[in-house]
Amino acid sequence: MFQFKQIILYILIIGAAQALQLMVVLFRKKENHLANRILALSMLLFSLDLVVIVLFASGEIIKVPQLMAISNTFPFVYGPNIFLYVILLTRNEKTFKHSYYLHYIPFVLTQIYGLFFFYFQPQSFYENLLIPDSVVPWHFALVGNLIPVSGVIYTVLTIRESVKFNNRIKDSYSNIDKINLRWLSYFVIGTAVIWLIVILAYTLNFIYGEELRANILIYVGMAVFLFLIGYKSLRQPEVVLIVSEQPAEKIQNNKDSSYKKSGLSDEFAKNAVNKLNEIMEREKPYLKSELNLSDLASMVNVSTHNLSEIINTRINKKFYDFINEFRVEEVKQLIEKDADKKMSILAIGYEAGFSSKSAFYSAFKKVTGITPAQYRNDTRKEKVA
Length: 385
Description:
Number of helices: 18
Radius of gyration: 27 Å
Structural class: mainly alpha
Oligomer: single chain
Helix content: over 70%
Strand content: under 5%
């Protein structure tokens, strides 16, 4: 048992060191500067939190018991920080809006609470807290039980924001394979898992009592999370949406509300759609794998915002799907011409403008309902018949 406890302590200490290292790296990164400052602050708090639990496990926390209260308020910062990090990263914002400070009200309130009910208590009060299942004031328990509530709320908000961003990039790019969103996905999923562990730990403590020390699962989870994101954080990408002519508040909404007050006339839109289709058929810009909204808007001679609106509301498609449907049709034509199978299926996909096998197969099946290989076999059977 002693050896197991030592292993846990080593994991926590290494996790704290990893968090400090990430903090330094994030502060020095030039990309996503403001977003990384928020994340760096979270890394610092993670590190302090892990140090406190090490002191708690070793019994040394009794020398500075106020650290228990301070670290217990950190979760009221974690949720807002992660949420705002995702917002600042995905919207590429350069300033911290005044409205963002409202997310820290619960943290400020817990600090005020601490001043009255925790930070200046007698030593016996703190010693009592170290006893499993000790009786504590109801309001003290309430503050602790609000932590998973805050976590659930901000996890939902964070996931929703990242999903909205994943959808928005399809209004700007025809190929998103090189726009590495894995960092964001890993990060959001990782934080969601941590909050699930928090809920699990609270549930176990409620059922079996605090003597089980289920809270240690939270901190071990944090340490493992820090190990996993450490490498990924060094390759964190910066993605700028091309649809930048829209006001920021419009970018945040869905496509229907984004264009509600549009001044785009029916005649202008109709002419633009005709010109767009003519360019797509004659010049085949979709063969360029890196084609984006800005490139196509220049060819049609309209603004990126107007072209995005036209594709979304007049053609009822996202830019990503609109372009890839043309690429799928190009693949079908190339397959039919390549009766002798001189080209591989993947080579044909690249020839048509796709930049990866996964994007090619996914788009082809979405449009046709079958794989490219199945389409080639069906085409060959029709010619033989």
